[in-house]
Design goal:
Elements (H helix, E strand, L loop, with lengths): L1 H14 L23 H5 L11 H4 L3 H12 L2 H22 L4 E13 L8 E13 L13
Antiparallel strand pairs: 1-2
Length: 148
Amino acid sequence: MRRLIALSLIALLLSGCAVGPNYKRPSVNVPGTYREAIPQEATQPAAESIGDQKWWEVFQDPQLQDLIRTALQQNYDVRIAATRILQAQAQVGITRADQLPTISGGVEAVNQRSARSKFFPAFETSSNQVDLSLAWELDFWGKYRRAQ
């Protein structure tokens, strides 16, 4: 009975270590041209159409272009989206940095001088300390690789 409990406990602990397979992007067959396109139009490059131009340059009104430029500069949704992209990039950098060794060091110097008292003479003490540490967590189960 004890062997059965011990074996099931070991099997349970080892199954908790499995992380899963690496993600593989599925292959997708994308057609080269639009399926409703006429074959002559598909092979000939068209002149620059209105759809290829920047949408704010289509309108020739300078006041409207000024308003569009102001709206783009003061659009809080775009700012929030850009900030979230920067945060995500920073998080990826932090996650990648966790895979590297960590080195830390420090230096400490203490000088202490005591005045002469009724029972003890004056004395001076000095203490110096240098610390250096190197740590590296082995990504044995893929914790950091899969977090990217």
